[in-house]
Design a protein that fits this description.
Layout lengths: L3 H5 L5 H8 L3 H8 L7 H14 L5 H8 L4 E6 L3 H6 L1 H13 L6 E6 L3 H10 L7 E5 L7 H7 L4 E4 L15 E4 L1 H14 L5 E5 L5 H16 L9 E3 L4 H14 L5 E4 L2 H13 L9 E6 L2 H5 L5 E4 L2 H17 L7 E4 L2 E3 L5
Parallel strand pairs: 1-2, 1-3, 3-4, 4-5, 5-11, 6-7, 6-8, 8-9, 9-10
Antiparallel strand pairs: 10-12
Helix pairs in contact: 2-3, 2-4, 7-15, 10-11, 12-13
Length: 348
Amino acid sequence: MTTQRTRSLGRPTLDAVAARAGVGRGTVSRVVNGSPQVSPEARAAVQQAIAELGYVPNRAARALVTQRTDSVALVVSESGERVFTEPFFAGIVRGISSGLLETPMQLWLAMAQSPVERERVEHHLTNQHVDGVLLLSLHDADPLPTLLEERGLPTVLGGRPARMLRPGAQPAYFVDVDNVGGARQAVEYLAGKGRRRIATIAGPQDMGAGLARLTGYREAVAATGGQVDPAMIAYGDFSEGSGTACMRRLLESCPDLDAVFAASDLMAHGALRALREAGRRVPDDVAVVGYEDSPLARQSDPPLTTVFQPVEEMGRQMAHLLVSRIRGEDLPAPYVLLDTHMVPRASA
């Protein structure tokens, strides 16, 4: 506990922390700078001494020595309304924060959807302000990843870019889930329940997740001996409103459909609304499967069968990969790919 006597003696120093912890000054420095080259016992002793003395690192002085800012940016190419209301973004931020806990890194968040927001963000993303950048919700034409690499800023993408699903694509550092496999599981699950007219509400095709989940749908339909009918595909933007609009279009173009795979839980939730409005019973008339296993999936009526994707783990892995890049560590691969699985509930 920090006492009044401790405060009266002036700002605690690195040497004071070392003396209190019974370790060398270098060990304290390594703990403060987030180095992994410290034993768990020494790290615990240093952290306890820091807490007891109320030691606060001099960030400006450390930046001069390490040439680092101890800050990383999370840039989301969406509106603030979506970032603060949709469960996916909250889960990613929780995971990133967890992944940075044992480092000195501070996280700052920026939305970059409008031209004004993008200009402000691009101006700030330099090595004078941040050590690295995490990018989320990228569209294929976004120039930000190339710009950041040209500036020499370590960058990690949340989700495989759509361009990387095409032949001859340039490599990128990213963390993603097996979107193709997850979508394939969803359609195979519906087919296994006897559904034969399976439609899909796909995500944006200039985003990796949207493109990959539609690929998984196409593969599964073909594998069950069916023909992929363009009329059975509607394109949304991962939002609830787009799910409602797409479901209405599908009911008009294919009134005999008996199942729908939506590429996000929010679009699936919107689809449920449209089906209720049309007098279609779920799952009796139309079975519905979503993607993510967000809290919304458990709260919908009926509860939503969905594909689980480990959103918080995705955020943690993004943070770990970025920190490794900042530290110049050798990496076994430039990406992390996480598994998905089905979560059966009443909607299918």
